[in-house]
Amino acid sequence: MKKTITLLLMVFTIVCYSQSIDYKAATTKKGSNYFEIVNQVRQELGAYNKNASKTEIKRHKQFERWAYYWKDRVDVNGNFPNNFTGWYNAGIIDGKGKLKNTTNAHSRVAGNEESWTNIGPQEVPDANGYPNNPQLGRLTNFLRYEHATDANQNVLFVSAPVGGVWKSVDNGNTWSPKLDYLAGIGVTDIKSSSSDINNPGTIYISTGDFDAKHINSIGVYKSTDFGETYQPTNLTFSLDEKETTSNLIVIDVNTVIVGTNKYIKKTTDGGATWTNVYTHNYDDAVLGKFHRNGSNIICSDSWGGLLFSSNNGSTWSALISEGENSARYGTTTDENGVFYVQAENGQVSSYNPNATIPTLTAVGSTTVGYNTQGSYNQCIAVKDGLIISGGVDGINSDDLGNSWYVTLNNAWEDNTSAGSYGHADIHEIGTLDNGYSFWNVNDGGLNFVTYSNIADEKPTVEYKSNGVIVTQLYSVAITPQTSTDNMIMGNQDNDGYSLEMVSGTPTWVTAGAGDGTCTAVDYSNPQIRYLGSQNGGLTRADNGFLGDVWGTSLTTPTTGAPFVWTLKMHSTTSTTLYGGFADVYKSINKGDTWTNLNSGAGPIEYIETFGNNLFVIGENAVKKSSNDGSSWSSVTQPEAGAKMNSISLDQNNTNTVYATVNGYVDGSKVFKSTNGGSTWTNISGSLPNIIAKQVVLKQNQGQEILFLGTELGVYYKVGTASWTKLGQGLPNVVVSDIEINYTQDKLVVGTFGRGLWEISIANNTLGVNEVEASELAAPTVFPNPVVDGVLNIKLNNTSNNYDYKMYNVIGGLVKKGTLNTGLNTLDVSKVATGIYVIRMTDGKTVSSQKVIIK
Predict the structure, then answer these.
(1) CA–CA separation, 61 vs 534, rounded Å?
(2) Do residues 673 and 624 touch, judged by C-beta distance below 8 A?
(3) Closest Cα to residue 693, out of 709, 680, 677?
(4) Local structure of residue 107 (DSSP, 8 states)
(5) Residue 323 confidence (pLDDT) above 80
(6) CA-CA distances (angstroms) from residue 264 to 254, 274, 308?
(7) Alpha-carbon distance 807 to 804, whole Å?
(8) pTM assigned to the model
């Protein structure tokens, strides 16, 4: 018996979305204010409740993800910039929105010879007992070229809202990125003028993120070499236009149709010129969701209008006038050329252009349980009377809409659940092969779905995008105690991934969270791992997440916590944690209980700590404490026209502080204070006017070494030298989080849309001017491992004294002093078990050695 969905859920969904303001469209409207929108929508949504309905939780997530994206981009007054201001300022696009020098986009900006390496996960992590496990990340569309005799040689393409275009020449077994220089801009659609694998024609892409509307479009690009490289057509936009482009209709090699905010545009000369073939009454109509059958094309807009063309898009007429509702339609056709559209309320209607008197006619009853999250995910497919309605779930009807049931279930638990598991939020869907085989792209990737017959309730679902690394990271944490199972990452919409040993092999396993917002690993005991979820949720796994996918849920002060919140571990006492909730809280027992430190900074956005020194950035103020939060003083903002968004503290001199600020204030990105934040010196130097996300000081070195994560990769600076782009091969994408692996001398970065990367930052690769002591001259450190609390260091053949600093795997300073000629005995009995680095210098030469304390 088919399991239908209650009408109550459908009504609730319609009501809650009809009350929402269109915050996504606000970024394109003059006079829109970020802070006013955030306050209004948060009042409308109310406090986040993890026990609320999935519809309400998803509403919170959609909005808070949008707010998080814009937080570092708006100015102090809340004005919205163009998405691509940084791209223009960095010299990647010109004033008309065209990319410059696309064939050499990486090497053109490379600063040193080191190369970035993607460190995964390369495939979907081990589900780890999670029945509806996360996958690699959201995709927006799919293109296939079929091989005549061997399906394993099919050529597939997928597009991502952050992550570009990916290609497979073996039917999805392996994938490679083809648009990394555009990774941070993303792609809404990919279509071709041909389906012939031997004559692939021209491939067109529509840029930006049409569904989520976080990222605008820079226009339509095309490839004439089977998707290997892409060049702009003449449909591009200046920074002031803040445009969108929709999915595409590609009629032939030269004829393409696309929707923008106000127009339907058409080219008949391969993109050299574009004509407005339809002009909407409103500037924010966001025309799109096209579907074509022969010369007939249907199109919806965000004002509830529905347009039809019978002549390949040359002219258009209204099937439904705009303004009848405030959301777009999903559109498709069946095998007979009959069009089907689905409104935001779930009602499916048909339109047969070949009828004597074509009319738009309601089909069956309204889809029950239909949820598009305000048109974020809305698509439909029809074949032989089988209707598949794609929203949060895949909801089917095999009797032309008279009854509905779930077949693609994002909340699938086991075979007693309705349908088969399909990742939430289906963005596009289409027919695939003979019979009832379909593809869909969703927030987890690409699926091939096969129904054995029209009434099949549990279709076969095959995940096809293993290797398409488009994971959107908020946070990464490492523990260099080991080189094999040493990381955990938190991801937007795809929970967390923890790298752990499985049968002797380092394996990424799933850690449950929802949105994985913050992470930490106990550097004294790497098995103890933390994963935060939205609005202050936190779990701890005391023996790793392997076999314990949800860990232990900790009671945290979630009320008033930011959606993407911050968790910081004390740099030398790993059982002490600091949490960024409605204020900064402290736990001395691994998160079991929390105490409010009452900084008065408001909801906390960033925390930096060493010893008793605490710096916190809140929504209302920046505060510091030198007594572990017992009392607080204010820190001056470095830039009047921007707001501080990250801090790094010199652990050898806590009056030395580094900070970044948000927004596009030219020449104001990174600042340094030598008096604890009372006054600041601008050290932005030659940095382009791009968003600075996070600054990190490499601790305990002979000179100042800084790393800066930005919206376009990583920069570094040594001493008084200029900032330089770090390494080669990192896609043009936002760097969300930076960690230094001190025992392996590597920088690990989490990106938003292209997964996890690392690069060597050994001082000699950075151009640091220091001389390594020879093996004979270097101090001798013994015993190693240390088992009795005594570490001996002998200075060999030297009359010079050495200064030493002993620091843990995250750079936390645990001991420092002077070594005299001869034998030196250090008491390390109070130093926790683990791996440490001891750096010794006589001012001329340097020796850094690892020490294990057991």
Answers:
(1) 8
(2) no
(3) 709
(4) G
(5) no
(6) 16, 10, 12
(7) 10
(8) 0.93
